[in-house]
Amino acid sequence: MLDVNRLRLLRELSHRGTIAAVAEALSFTPSAVSQQLSTLEREAGVALLARTGRRVTLTPAGQNLVEHTESVLEHLARAEAELARVRAGLAGPVRIGSYPSAARTLFPAVLTLLARSHPMLEPQITELDPAEVPSALRAGDVDMALVHEYDFVPATSDPGLNSEALFTEPLYLAAPEQGTIADHRDSSWIVSPAGTMCRSSTERACQAAGFSPRVRHEIDDFATAMVLAALGQGVTLVPHLAALAPPEGLTLTRQSMSRRTRIAYRAGTAGHPAVAAVTSALREAVPTDLS
């Protein structure tokens, strides 16, 4: 019989690309991962990996087994959720990933609601960039997380994860005076670090307006970016949740762009009582001016 834990390693290899990356993500040594995958190949009776020097890729049989693994893990998650519903009371930790502006504006209300309705539940918040969420969910570092997508940066699908819409918020141009993105083709820009969805959204919005932004500052905090913009250090794009308290001297102009936030979790866990409780609290905490 195929070992589920070894199947997880194969699934992670298909996503992360290297044995070293799998080992780092799951707190194994590379040699231990290699040994477990070799054992899985013996259990399967066919070659699952193709090795060329230091490079390892999945064979067609390996890719096919990963697809089955997703179904197996989803069924196991559903079984665990059903067992959790049978147990009396809702207690213990539930690990939640959140991007910073949601952690600051939504989760105070969420934690208050959960403390009142499920006092034995122990929500644990970890700040995560949405780009890191799929890996964190698959690795079991978090049980659920908030992710978002922008008009110019749609979310990518992951066969092992599910998500549901939470709310949509507008984006604003933060600058000394009212204006549009196109008005600032010659301005300096304050953007998020490379590799983030926020950065990609800004770059693609500027490209749609016919130019590439001239980056002056790379700041991974909207509050700091707005302070710099108020000082004349550049202009920046800010979502609604991060723009609730702009600094003096800064003008926010709503743009025809939006950011959509979703609740993501591992496939099969939507019915878990802890996931359902946090989801309910999140929906109740969303401000009424957001849809």
What this model shows, in words?
The chain has 10 helices and 10 strands. It is α/β, with parallel strands linked by helices. It has a 6-stranded mixed β-sheet with strand order 4-3-5-10-6-9. A hairpin with a 2-residue loop joins strand 1 and strand 2. Helix 1 (4-16) packs across helix 4, helix 2 (19-26) crosses helix 3 (30-44) and helix 6 (107-117) packs across helix 10. The chain is globular and about 65 Å long.
Any chance you could write out the topology, listing elements then pairs?
Blueprint: H1 4-16, H2 19-26, H3 30-44, E1 49-52, E2 55-58, H4 60-86, E3 92-98, H5 100-105, H6 107-117, E4 121-127, H7 133-139, E5 144-150, E6 161-175, E7 188-191, H8 197-208, E8 214-218, H9 222-230, E9 236-239, E10 251-266, H10 273-285
Parallel strand pairs: 3-4, 3-5, 7-8
Antiparallel strand pairs: 1-2, 5-10, 6-9, 6-10
Helix pairs in contact: 1-3, 1-4, 2-3, 6-10
